[in-house]
Amino acid sequence: MTRRANYFDRPRLPVRCFWSMPRQGNLQVSTLKPSSPMSKPGIGSQLFGMDASSQEYKSIAVHFECERNFLLAGKFFLYAKQYAKAVRHLLRVPYSDSSPALDLAIEAVGEAKDKKLTHMVIAYLMGETDGIAKDPRYLFRLYMALQQYREAARTAVIIAREEQNNGNYRNAHDLLFSMVQELRQCGIKVPAEMLDNLSLLHSYILAKLHIKTGNHLIAARLLIRIAQNISKFPSHIVPILTSTVIECHKVNLKHTGFTYASMLLHPEHRDKIDQRYRRKFEGIVRRPEKPSSEEMELLNAASECPFCSTSVPDYELSCGSCRASLPYCTLTGKHVVKNDLTLCPNCDFPMSYSNLITFLENQPDFVCPMCSAPLFRDEVRCLADAVEVLLSWNAGSADPEDDTRTSTNMTGVNSKQDNNVDKAPASVTKDQVLH
């Protein structure tokens, strides 16, 4: 038998591990070389898509087991449906964000539906076996693989809340967005709490965008939404309220600015105010202004509900008439209207067509604020059958009866303020993910 020259450059494998392997079916074990599969990716690729039996896959797994290649041993034990062996080998692969070992272990647990294996993987993810806490997104994927979608959604919210409490708002936003997309792609209804948390985080992202581009009215309205839920942003209470007061005064929402200036001057926040603004805020609180007709007009600006055509305040995300949740524009944070709707070509989140065109004309390199994909003028179309699209969008969201919904009421300045910092879990604990 002809062998490649480099065969003799490496130690021979034990006979029981290699040459005694069966030559069955159309999967010829003798095609394998005892060189490192990691440096020879062709070895693994030769085996994908082949109509091999479980016994053949087991033989390949034993070969890699003898080479102490835990990744490929685990992979082929998985193909052989020997899930316990697959998981044990895959969890021995050194942890790396780029390694597929954990994804394969999760796939094995999902197929096995075995409680012991599930707990083994959870313990590994929590760092109980090696002291290294793994990327929490793997826990979400584990529940998805087990088809425990409620637990997956709850885990997503806990993970994002931890990032949010630590002030990592972009990370929290991107985590929730990716998990929402994964649920949608699997045809699973997204819980209202996930969507509400995402909308609040997205409002924060948008507020920064509109401050930068000089759209101060939109920025002020978005900051009011955030300030009404300030406990969700415990790491930046004072900076957010400061920005809210400043942006409100720029667009003559002075009574609203007074509301948040008063909050800033509470004893727990007063000493943390930037000295550049502290005296100004004290003056605002000493000389409060009543709501002007201009301010009330701005706060009560309304547009039609896309479902029942009832007038709804622009920044209200539910209709008091038809009780529908209203999708929001990912450019402005307003609820969408049916005659001015488009979707991001990449993530399918709704946008105001006219606002998007304006952004693209002023910023040719503009990206979607939700998914960060580049947007191009020739890919954007105003939707003719917008109601059907929005009904389909809402069909992908779970009913909110059992969910704690985030307040998005923007109709006035006398809304109940959220002054207390929620005590969210500092981390995802094993008890939280097992029950």
List key phrases describing it.
mainly alpha; WD repeat-containing protein 19; 3% strand; 4 strands; two-stranded antiparallel ribbon; Herpes Virus-1; WDR19/dyf-2; two-stranded antiparallel sheet; 19 helices; elongated; 435 residues; disordered N terminus
Largest sheet: 2 strands, antiparallel
Q: Termini distance?
A: 58 Å
Number of strands: 4
Beta fraction of the residues? under 5%
Query: How big is the Rg?
Result: 28 Å
Mean pLDDT: 82
Approximate helicity band: 40-55%
Q: Count the helices. How many?
A: 19
Could you state the order of secondary-structure elements as H and E?
A: HHHHHHHHHHHHHHHHEEEEHHH
Poorly predicted runs:
1-42, 399-435
Briefly note the structural class of the backbone.
mainly alpha
Q: Report the principal-axis shape.
A: elongated
Strand order of the largest sheet: 1-2
Description:
It comes from Mesocestoides corti. This is WD repeat-containing protein 19. InterPro entries: WDR19/dyf-2. One of its GO terms (cellular component) is cilium. With 435 residues, the chain is mainly alpha-helical. Among the domains are: 81 residues, no CATH class; 105 residues; 94 residues, Herpes Virus-1 (2-Layer Sandwich). Helix content is 49%, strand content 3%. It is built from 19 helices and four strands. The strands form two sheets. A two-stranded antiparallel sheet has the order 1-2. The chain has a two-stranded antiparallel ribbon with strand order 3-4. The longest helix is centred in the middle third of the chain and has 22 residues. The radius of gyration is 28 Å and the shape is elongated. The N terminus and C terminus are likely disordered.
